[in-house]
Design a protein that fits this description.
Radius of gyration of chain A: 21 Å
Radius of gyration of chain B: 20 Å
Strand order of the largest sheet of chain A: 1-8-6-3
Helix content of chain B: 25-40%
Structural class of chain B: alpha/beta
Number of strands of chain A: 8
CATH superfamily of chain A: RNA polymerase II/Efflux pump adaptor protein, barrel-sandwich hybrid domain
Distance between the termini of chain B: 26 Å
Order of helices and strands of chain B: HEHEHEHEHHEHEHEEEEHEEHEHEHH
Distance between the termini of chain A: 59 Å
Oligomer: heterodimer
CATH topology of chain A: OB fold (Dihydrolipoamide Acetyltransferase, E2P)
Number of helices of chain A: 0
Number of domains of chain A: 1
CATH class of chain A: Mainly Beta
């Protein structure tokens, strides 16, 4: 397993920090891409941050009321080694499903 | 044509024991192993690209190679594809065999000038004094819910350029052997890796590419059948094999031809298969218009016009920019769309 850290991004233009309002996930949670992770407040607005990736939450940084600087760690994910760093999602191998059936009179000429 | 000889050869192939040289691995691991062996075999080979060195590639294809073969032979480049391919031209001129990577299909566009105007024609331009033995690895096609520029199918674009060869493996075994073969070629080869198949495992026999003595060039029959030929490459081969299984439930016996080499296309294999089945459907992820399916359909028509039971059908992506992940399943040919294509061919009536 590999750990991937997600630092607090600049949420506006030139903002330098944000205050944690509420964590929506906890260590141990399995999160999906775009799932809301945390609500933070900047000098401009309060926003929910979506998860940049799939993974298991290992650590979160800062509790409600704590300030986090842009570029400092916000959350750390754990992902399997063979998917670390990829852009996108590893496809699941599923049993083939069908709705269309074939019909034909095959004349063997 | 008699099917008995084909069936008996198929039986001979499936009944043979698994050789000791066979291991089960993912396509990632198969490609990694091939590159490791290529670096060991040929001191002129170099691997480079964005994140290829220290990280081992975003898809882990070059994982561990820098540690094993050194920073002089496996290294990271700036985020500049024109630079990656431009450097490949210079290295090839200096006698190296570069194996560059562009991280995703859509990032080959910034390097098209280097690929088309230099790599493809330097040998021609120099009257054979500057061959371009370059193996360009391009993680290709869709299927991983990635953002824009990460799901493109560029085979028709590359295949259209004189001087380039284009190949795409469909499973770990083919990936291992086709990559090893491509890296021994004196010509530039665009190696299109089906990224949605990177994690699927399969048996890889490192000793023999084709136990039947087949060539590493040309197409390969992945399943034999009597009623219709499905032609595909890359990730669509696995899907077509699933479709063939489902069609068998309806009594339709489908042959699946893995085209493998998209330039040059194995016209003889297309002719041999469709002469037997008399019906063909081409499947690809790329958009329909001017896609490689048109070329395949024409080659089949030219050699089998007299015996074809129906026009060659195409089941493809749509003439739109590759969509975002949420719409991917609607874009890539799925099982039902391929079955509909087969049904259109089966029920076609002349006149």
């Amino acid at each position: 397993m590999a750990e991937i850290s997600f630092p607090l991004p600049d949420l506006g233009e030139g903002l330098i920090e944000a205050t944690v309002l509420e964590w929506l996930v906890a260590p141990g949670d399995q999160v999906e891409r775009n799932q809301p992770l945390v609500e933070v407040e900047t000098t401009k607005s309060a926003v929910e941050l979506p998860s940049p990736q799939v993974g298991k939450v290992v650590r979160i940084h800062g509790g409600p009321g704590d300030k986090i600087n842009v570029g400092e760690p916000l959350i750390v994910f754990e992902v399997p080694d063979n998917t670390a760093g990829i852009v996108g999602t590893v496809p699941k191998e599923e049993a083939p499903k069908r709705r269309v059936r074939l019909s034909a009179v095959l004349d063997e000429d | 044509m008699s099917n008995s000889t084909l069936e008996s050869s198929a039986a001979a192939r499936t009944s043979k024991g698994t050789p000791a040289s066979t291991t089960v691995m993912s396509m990632q691991q198969a490609l990694n192993r091939a590159l490791d062996e290529v670096l060991a075999d040929n001191p002129r080979t170099l691997i480079f690209g964005e994140d290829c060195g220290r990280l081992g590639g975003v898809f882990r294809i070059t994982d561990g190679l820098q540690a094993k073969h050194g920073e002089q032979r496996v290294f990271d480049t700036p985020l500049a594809e024109s630079g990656i391919l431009g450097m490949s031209v210079g290295l090839a001129m200096a006698g190296f065999h570069p194996i560059p990577e562009v991280q995703f299909d859509g990032f080959a566009y910034p390097a098209i000038n280097q690929i088309v105007c230099q790599i493809a024609r330097m040998n021609y331009r120099s009257r054979g004094t500057m061959p371009m033995p370059i193996t360009l690895r391009v993680p290709s096609f869709g299927g991983i819910r990635a953002p824009e520029h990460h799901g493109e199918s560029l085979e028709a674009l590359f295949a259209h350029v004189p001087g380039l060869k284009v190949v795409s493996p469909s499973n770990p075994h083919e990936a291992y052997h086709l990559l090893k073969y491509a890296t021994t070629r004196p010509d530039p080869v665009i190696f299109m890796e089906p990224k949605s198949r990177y994690w699927q495992k399969g048996e890889v026999d490192t000793a023999t590419h084709d136990a039947g003595g087949g060539s590493p060039t040309g197409a390969k029959v992945m399943r034999e059948g009597r009623h219709l030929t499905l032609v595909a490459w890359g990730a669509m081969v696995a899907r077509c094999l699933q479709v063939a299984e489902l069609a068998a439930e309806d009594g339709i016996d489908i042959e699946v031809l893995d085209l493998r080499w998209l330039k040059p296309i194995d016209a003889a294999a297309l002719a041999a298969s469709v002469r037997k089945t008399r019906r063909a459907v081409v499947v690809h992820e790329a958009p329909l218009t001017s896609g490689l399916g048109a070329e395949v359909a024409q080659l089949i028509t030219q050699s089998c016009f007299d015996t074809l039971k129906a026009p060659v059908e195409r089941v493809t992506g749509f003439d739109v920019p590759y969509p975002s992940g949420d719409l991917e399943d609607e874009y890539i040919p799925n099982i039902d769309r391929i079955l509909f294509g087969i049904q259109r061919v089966l029920e076609y009536k002349r006149g």
